[in-house]
Amino acid sequence: MLKLPNLPEKEELEYQKQEFFLSILEEFQATSKLWFYFLGAFVLIAIPAGILMKNVWTSSFISQYQPPAVNTVPYQAVPLRVLKTEILPVTDTLDSVYSQIFNPNSDISASDIQYELLLKGSGGNILNTIKGDSYLLAGESKFLLSPTVAANPLLASVELKFGEIHWTKFKPQFVLKLSVLQANTGTAPEGKFFVEGLVRNPEGYRVKKVEVAIVVFDKTNQNIQAINSTVLTDLLPLESRYFRVIWPFGKTYPVAQVQIIPYVNLLDPGFVIQKPDKLPAR
Question: How much of the chain, in percent, has pLDDT values that exceed 70?
Fold first, then answer.
């Protein structure tokens, strides 16, 4: 059985309370007033002194802080190389211009390349400028093509000039190897030269965009004599997409080799549209 202690009566508790406060008052009255003056002065000095010291210490700590060094050039990339740049006459009113570039970096890709093709006269004066943007994976080369450029009788040379280049060590999630099948050249009934073939997607996902570069070599298989390009969109899984590129004027080329190069920007995270659950029959 729990036994509760005997609590004092209410009147007795009230008496003890008053007796306690009275004893404290007597202690204050017995204390020298100098202590109260000292305490008041200390409080008056301590508050502004604390604020002043806080500001001084804060300024001192901030002035001594050394922020970590920020590397404004995260990747020390070797500059892109220009392998070849050339003007190809097509007709009296039309030229083609191309440049072949190479990325010598083995682990750094150029996700965005701003460039200009400067068309110059014999004195070095700029007659025309072709602006463009591209990309280039690590260790790879690429053709930059401008198949149709207005011809200028004063045009003597072309120079490729790079603008801003964004570098990245991002490695593509997919390894995509598009193949070219049944490549063929010929002359259409209206006398126009053409190149045709199939671009096959051997993977199980749909590719949003494929840039197809066509480079035609002469009989020596050393000199480029014509260029062209086309774009394929929404290339389905296991699809072989037919294309035909026709030169706009009735000009034939003695052909030794035709390079058909499908380019897909693997650095673009959205180059794959979807990966279906079921694949079409082969």
Answer: 75
- CA 198-253-128 angle, to 5 degrees, is 90
Tokens of 18: 């008053």
Token pair belonging to 270: 């959205």
- pLDDT for the residue numbered 6: 59
Q: Mapping DSSP to helix (H, G, I), strand (E, B) and coil, where does residue 17 land?
A: helix
- Radius of gyration (Cα) for the chain, nearest Å? 41
Kindly report, residue by residue over 177-226, the tens digit of the pLDDT: 899 999 999 988 888 899 999 999 998 889 999 999 999 998 888 899 99
Nearest by Cα to 208 from 250, 187, 236? 236
* DSSP letters spanning 185-236: EEE-TTS-EEEEEEEE--SSSEEEEEEEEEEEE-TTSSSEEEEEEEEEEEE-
Token representation of residue 254? 């003695």
Burial of 94 (0-12, 13-18, 19+ CB in 10 A): middle
Model pTM score: 0.69
